[in-house]
Write a structure and sequence with these properties.
about 80 residues, 3-stranded antiparallel sheet, globular, alpha+beta
């Protein structure tokens, strides 16, 4: 189970995404050996399409990656 501080951060990132018209999705995989276990992806609420975290594979973001992307108003850092 995730510790309390991680859950608080996840909820904060979810609220940030909602305010910007996105949704933060977390992988539902339960197998810790799965490539997308514990990963995140950001999708556009209107289109349902992935906008970040689906390349090279779905749910490839960490929570910190999602936070940084949302803080930068959805611009991918090079």
């Amino acid at each position: 189970m995730a510790d309390n501080s991680e859950k608080v951060l996840e909820n904060r990132v979810r609220r940030m995404a909602d305010r910007q018209g996105y949704r933060l999705l977390k992988s539902r995989r339960r197998d810790p050996r799965a490539y997308d276990f514990g990963g995140y992806m950001i999708v556009d609420v209107q289109t349902g399409g992935a906008v970040y975290g689906s390349n090279p594979m779905p749910y490839s973001l960490s929570l910190q990656d999602a936070l940084e992307w949302l803080e930068d108003d959805g611009r991918i850092k090079k």
